[in-house]
User: What shape does this take?
Amino acid sequence: MNNRGDVLIFSTLDGADIDIENGIVKMTEGFETAVYLSLLGGNAEDDGTLATKKKEWWGNKLESNNPEKKLTSRFNNIITGLPATPANLKKIDEAAKQDLSWFISEKIVDKLEIDSNLSNKNRLDIKIILWKDKEKLCETKYSINWEGQSRNGNKL
Assistant: This one.
């Protein structure tokens, strides 16, 4: 079992989980956990604007000199605050690109590929591919509950 890297966090239908085999947490040397935390970490109430600055994730205080490393949760803010409609998919893609842009600014990758769609009512399927020098470094897929309606009390 690999014990280097990050704890492998994977998406489930109701959030995320880790895998434990024989009492040992499964690890990864890939970027799966970094992608997951970039999209769904931080505070879902923080959309990255100055208006929500007071709702910034507490851990960002540790990165005051490195603004590109702050978790702003634009993606998470949309899936918990806006209704699951085809029109909002463009906002999802843009928010994911912004939340993952640190991969490019840190020169880890030179291209992000994001493909999202609504597979069922309130279900977002998203695929993210990280590219470096035309080589695929990481491909992650998530099927996520889009909770905007339920949190706001709206119905489709």
In short: Strands lie at 6-7, 9-12, 15-18, 20-21, 24-25, 27-28, 111-120, 123-132, 135-145. Helices lie at 32-40, 74-81, 86-100, 102-105, 148-152. Residues 30-152 form one domain.
